[in-house]
Amino acid sequence: MIEELVGRVFAARNIAHLQHLTTTSYAQHKHLGDFYEDVVKALDELVECYQGQLAPLGDVEIMTPEVGDIAAYLREEGDWIESNRDEIAGDSQSVASLVDALVCVYTRTVYKLERLQ
Asked: Could you give the number of structural domains in the chain?
């Protein structure tokens, strides 16, 4: 499950970075820039903790879907992470807390994209 999480987060980062580079909205440019920087830091901390407590990371596959509405896509991805929290974290409270922090990166970005234009 951790491998799927990593693949999905990397895909979201790539999509956000591409939209960051091509948007004509300054606000969206800034919000997506914050997202792709923050999400990598949050994921890195989570995976390092996961590997220290649970198991090494296996093979990761990154698929990049077509995305029309970036805010809706990030909301869906954040919801997926949150709904799989327990399976990702296993019995580790520290990993669970880091999963929650990762979800916050998504929800904070959705808020900014939808409300701070």
From this structure: 1
